[in-house]
Specification:
There is one protein chain. By secondary structure, this protein is an alpha/beta fold. The protein has 2 domains: 29-116, Leucine Dehydrogenase, chain A, domain 1 (Rossmann fold); 140-273, NAD(P)-binding Rossmann-like Domain (Rossmann fold, 3-Layer(aba) Sandwich). Helices cover 40% and strands 18% of the residues. It has 10 helices and 11 strands. The chain has a 6-stranded parallel β-sheet. Strands 3-2-4 form a 3-stranded parallel β-sheet, sandwiched between helices. Helix 2 crosses helix 10 (271-290). The two termini are 35 Å apart. The structure holds NADPH dihydro-nicotinamide-adenine-dinucleotide phosphate.
Length: 297
């Protein structure tokens, strides 16, 4: 069997086009959705993410407000900025790019963001709302995964799903979303015994581990759907100038998994592009809720 490739890049473009359409509607009602992104320090990967987020925010017609703070910014100053953004009616979504420098308590920062503006969905109120099946701001990466799964399968009801990884930003909310769609969910992690057998039982495998190509094809049940969240940069040979050649791989070994799975997301071009598209969708939703406008479907 050769798996259907779930094209996250194309899907994300569709989501952004839909958001752009809705932004036009919202603007006609007199409101411009605004997303504030706060970056503390000079982590190069974070700087790239923030740049992409800003660019795509503007492309869909929203206002992008970027706050780049030096690495030695105090926790108190960061919290003061967040309080200011919470109170600003032109700001509908606030995101503080993680990781923050060690001297800042990330949990404190996330707790300070007004839940209604928490477009990353990491505030404990949104975590609780999601866990109890109420209207929440849903974390962008798992939301993107769910959208691709629903698009591919229609109903997920009754399917068995294994989520590899139990982080607060991917694994746990992913499991909640799958449970909300009536999957039978197993969350696996570094202490899980007989991991291969656990994965082999799943109709849906979501891998969010951060270990390059950890899941081989012979762990995958024939015909299963594989959603690969992992983004790992590995060295792969050397370039002509003698420097290492690098490429991105997921947490799943793509070729062997694609040979067995029914459908699979590639890395890059799978989950990654969906994450920012969902951030824009969440910002639009937050803006509609704040202004009593009809929410996008
Ligand atoms: P974390 O490091 O926070 O969590 C990793 C999880 O994997 C942990 O729960 C850990 O278990 C588990 N794990 C580690 N090793 C093993 C193992 N050998 N067997 C089984 N489970 C294991 O990572 P994140 O959730 O933040 O990210 C996961 C991956 O997803 C990374 O590659 C990251 O780059 C990527 N990512 C991609 C995004 C995108 O937009 N596409 C967005 C966010 C993340 P334990 O809890 O027991 O330690």
């Amino acid at each position: 069997m050769t798996a259907t490739v779930i094209d996250g890049k194309a899907f994300a473009a569709k989501v952004r086009a839909k958001v752009a359409e809705e932004v036009t509607r919202v603007k006609a009602a007199g409101v411009t959705p605004g997303l504030a992104v706060v970056l503390v320090g000079e982590d190069p990967a974070s700087a790239v993410y923030v740049r992409n987020k800003g660019k795509q925010t503007v492309e869909v017609g929203m206002e992008s407000i970027e706050h780049k703070l030096p690495a030695d910014t105090s926790e108190a100053d960061l919290l003061a900025l967040i309080a200011q953004l919470n109170a600003d009616p032109a700001v509908h979504g606030i995101l503080c790019q993680l990781p923050v420098p060690d001297h800042i308590d990330a949990d404190k920062v996330l707790a300070a963001i007004a839940p209604a503006k928490d477009v990353d969905g990491f505030h404990i109120s949104n975590v609780g709302l999601l866990a109890t099946g109420q209207k929440a701001m849903v974390p962008c990466t798992p939301l993107g995964c769910l959208m691709m799964l629903r698009d591919h399968h229609g109903s997920l009801s009754g399917m068995s799903a294994v989520v590899l990884g139990r982080s607060n930003i991917v694994g746990k909310p992913m499991a909640q979303l799958l449970l909300g769609d009536s999957c039978t969910v197993t969350i696996a992690h570094s202490r899980t015994k007989d991991l291969a057998d656990v994965v082999r039982g799943a109709d849906i495998v979501v891998a969010a581990v951060g270990r390059p190509e950890m899941v081989p094809g012979d762990w995958i049940k024939p015909g299963a759907t594989v959603i690969d969240v992992g983004i790992n940069r590995i060295e792969d040979g050397v370039k002509e100038d003698g420097t290492p050649r690098r490429r991105l791989v997921g947490d799943c070994h793509y070729d062997s998994c694609a040979a067995v799975a029914g459908a699979i997301t590639p890395v890059p071009g799978g989950v990654g592009p969906m994450t920012i598209a969902c951030l824009l969708a969440n910002t639009l939703t937050a803006c509609c809720r704040a202004n009593g406008l009809e929410e996008p479907a």
